From TrEMBL:
Superkingdom, taxonomy of origin: Archaea
InterPro entries: HAD-like_hydrolase_sf, HAD-like_sf, HAD_sf
Any Pfam family matching the protein: Hydrolase
Protein name per its UniProtKB record: Putative phosphatase
Coiled-coil stretches noted in the UniProt entry, renumbered to this chain: none
GO MF: phosphoglycolate phosphatase activity
Amino acid sequence: MVSEYDYWLLDLDGTLIDVEWSYTREVFDRVGDRLGREFTDQEADIIWSGLTGSRDRQLEAWGIDPHEFWEAFHAEEDPMVRAEQTYLHDDAAFVAELDVPVGLVTHCQEFLCEPVLDNVGIRDWFDARLCCTEETGWKPDPAPVESVLRELGVAHNGHEGVLAGDGANDVGAAWNAGLDAIHVERVGHERRGQCVLGDYRVESFDELPGRP
């Protein structure tokens, strides 16, 4: 049963929170101006939501240098505006009720993550958190997950844990670190274009068996 896990790790964007589409569209418009290339709604959705897995590989397939893209992207993201445009999924509220160690492992960069956590009021949900970088590694690499497990004090202690996220990279990171994986399909299989496997596959945390 899900309620019997000894610790939980969670992804952030697309799992616990999301941002209004108007914000995403405006950011990609400005990034497109910087790069001299327009992004369609579908392309913006694919990159923002990581629908095809590796965002860098997808950018390269479109002939876009990932380093140049992310440099432009982060330059155009306003932390306070993003925080104001971010909302918490109702079904994520159960995380506040978990009476076990809880960690956050996100690709959201720290300068964006911190105001977002404050704006939606969930900073105190987590006993440890990590914003992935080139130094920490990126999911599905287990390194950032293992780093949070060490900070939580649960690494290699024989207890059972789970990682919940909205993408294939989250599931991969969980399995690579020896954890169970919950895939929360927020966008739908048709929009994603593929089906992501996990130990649990749900469209809402409300569907989890034995949810606390």
